[in-house]
Amino acid sequence: MANEFGICDQCKATNVDTLIPKLKEIDPEASITVGCQNFCGIGRTKSFAIVNHVPVMAETEDELIEEIRKKLS
User: 1 pLDDT exceeds 90?
Assistant: First the structure.
């Protein structure tokens, strides 16, 4: 089963231009949905992604990538 990532292109703490390539490094075959994920409050201050329908959050994008790697291992 392929992984699914959901990221928001409107939240201030998320930079899709840098996050998408990092997610593709983790899983080049994963589907990536870009758009509102309904985590607006969290997205103002923390980097987050929805990973296989489960939210993953961190203070920085690099920490987020580490958390996503842990979740998928």
Answer: no
Question: Could you tell me the two tokens for 38?
Answer: 């309904």
d(CA 58, CA 2): 23
CA distances from 2 to 8, 28, 49, 63 (A): 20, 10, 16, 23
Q: How far apart are alpha carbons 12 and 71 in whole angstroms? A: 24
% of the chain beyond a pLDDT of 90: 89
- 18 φ, ψ to 5°? -100, -30
Q: Tokens at residue 59, please? A: 């203070």
Rounded to an integer, what distance in angstroms lies between the CA atom of residue 62 and that of residue 15? Answer: 12
Pair 27, 20: CB distance under 8 Å: no
Percent of the chain with pLDDT over 70: 100
